[in-house]
Write a structure and sequence with these properties.
Distance between the termini: 41 Å
Structural class: alpha+beta
CATH superfamily of one domain: Bacterial muramidase
CATH class of one domain: Mainly Alpha
Mean pLDDT: 85
CATH architecture of one domain: Orthogonal Bundle
Strand content: 5-15%
Order of helices and strands: HHHHHHHHEHHHEHHEHEHEEHHH
Low-confidence stretches: 1-35, 193-205, 389-416
Number of helices: 18
Number of strands: 6
Shape: globular
Largest sheet: 4 strands, antiparallel
Strand order of the largest sheet: 3-6-5-4
CATH topology of one domain: Helicase, Ruva Protein, domain 3
Length: 416
């Protein structure tokens, strides 16, 4: 699938409601449920029952418990519309996207969130080596720190997209993805947040009310949950108990959300003390355009991009805040129409850390927004090399040592 054509749809489907206006948590409307026509509902029920039977057999979960949990599950027609790809006349607009997410309300909320969680953010950064600015930026762009977490029941969302995905060229693949996520949701709720399943002969019971509440929790229109908008599979694989209360709650616990985002980034290859992206030099735009294929893969060395005039020598020098010349990178293209409607493109060189953000949400727009949001909070988009005796320590080792000693201060943050 060509990345440039698909990344907006993929971001919608996997990242959650960061681009969906919803009400704050304290005033969200009741959970949305809508029914479709009888024939669609009949097919939906049959397919859902088959999946529940399969999960019951494979995971040794009592089928009656699953059937009770999904007894009132329904398709949600509005979700089918929300995941449709843009029309043929739609023009992707990087400048409009950026303006929507890097704006005063989110930045002010980000600084407040940082103040409220400063000590814990410092602890998590030192342990994970993921900068606090990146963690704060991701949660801010995703949900404005919990204000926009979606108002659909997660079991309805995933069931709808698993068994009633709209007719698009990639329908089979998308339905399979959401079937997998629905299975992950069941296991998540049955185990209480990704723990081990009760054994067949275990006396360990399952709280049916808690199981039902988990299935009925609110999510985005793509099934993403909580402050960081994790899909069920990501919750089971990467979410952690940050506040130490013995459970993972991404909806109400900022510490759980912070620690989980950091863990996700670390597990997906975040390089401590390294930059995220570099702007392409003006005289290197033509060369960058020729290399921009929309595929988020590290293909070119920084030295090669320097030789093509896309980057400067300083960007291949750790002592100047760059990266090792042999570091791999790729071209990021961010299209937008100018004031006359003429197509334009802003180019960046994406480094390993840019690619790590893309793993969180498969969108170049998203990743660059996170980078710039973080910079607005004080993040320095450059390598971190100790000033003392720099010739004896280089690369990520030096960056790691510096990152571990980094301290937080509200003075870092940009004023409103």
């Amino acid at each position: 699938m060509n990345f440039r054509v698909s990344y907006i749809l993929l971001a919608v489907a996997l990242a959650g409601c960061s681009s969906t206006p919803t009400l704050p948590i304290q005033s969200q409307q009741s959970i949305v449920n809508q029914t479709d026509d009888a024939a669609t509902e009949a097919r939906f029920s049959q397919n859902l029952n088959e999946l529940l039977t399969q999960v019951s057999q494979n995971q040794e979960i009592p089928l009656p418990a699953l059937e009770m949990g999904f007894l009132d599950a329904k398709t949600v027609p509005s979700i089918r519309k929300l995941v449709l790809p843009p029309s043929g006349t739609f023009k992707k607009n990087w400048l409009a996207y950026r303006k929507r997410f890097i704006e005063p309300v989110r930045l002010k909320a980000g600084r407040a969130f940082w103040d409220q969680n400063q000590a814990f953010l410092s602890q998590v950064e030192q342990e994970s080596e993921v900068p606090a600015e990146i963690i704060v930026a991701i949660i801010g762009i995703e949900t404005i720190y919990g204000r926009q977490t979606g108002n659909f029941r997660v079991k309805d969302v995933l069931s709808t997209l698993a068994f009633s995905y709209p007719d698009t060229p990639n329908k089979p693949a998308r339905e399979q993805l959401f079937k997998d996520q629905l299975k992950e949701l069941i296991l998540l709720c049955w185990t209480g947040a990704g723990g081990k399943l009760p054994s067949k002969n275990s006396n360990q019971g399952i709280n049916s009310a808690r199981f039902s509440a988990c299935l009925n929790q609110n999510s985005s229109y793509a099934g993403a949950i909580g402050l960081p908008q994790f899909m069920p599979s990501s919750i089971r694989s990467f979410a952690v108990d940050g506040d130490g209360d013995g459970q993972i709650d991404l909806k109400q616990s900022p510490k759980d959300a912070i620690a989980s985002v950091a863990n996700f980034m670390k597990k997906h290859g975040w390089q401590p003390g390294m930059p995220i992206s570099f702007p392409v030099q003006a005289n290197g735009i033509s060369a960058a355009k020729a290399l921009a294929d929309g595929e988020p893969q590290l293909k070119y060395t920084v030295q090669e991009l320097i030789q093509k005039g896309i980057l400067t020598q300083q960007q291949g020098d750790l002592q100047s805040g760059g990266v090792d010349p042999q570091s791999k990178a790729f071209i990021v293209d961010l299209p937008y129409p100018d004031k006359d409607g003429v197509d334009q493109v802003q180019y960046f060189v994406g480094l390993n850390n840019f690619l790590t953000i893309v793993q969180y949400n498969r969108s170049y727009f998203y990743a660059q927004s996170v980078a710039e949001f973080a910079e607005a909070l004080g993040y320095k988009n450059q390598s971190v090399v100790p000033v003392e005796n720099p010739t004896k320590t280089s690369g990520s080792k030096a960056a790691t040592e510096k990152s571990k000693s980094k301290k937080f201060s509200p003075k870092k943050k940009v004023k409103s």
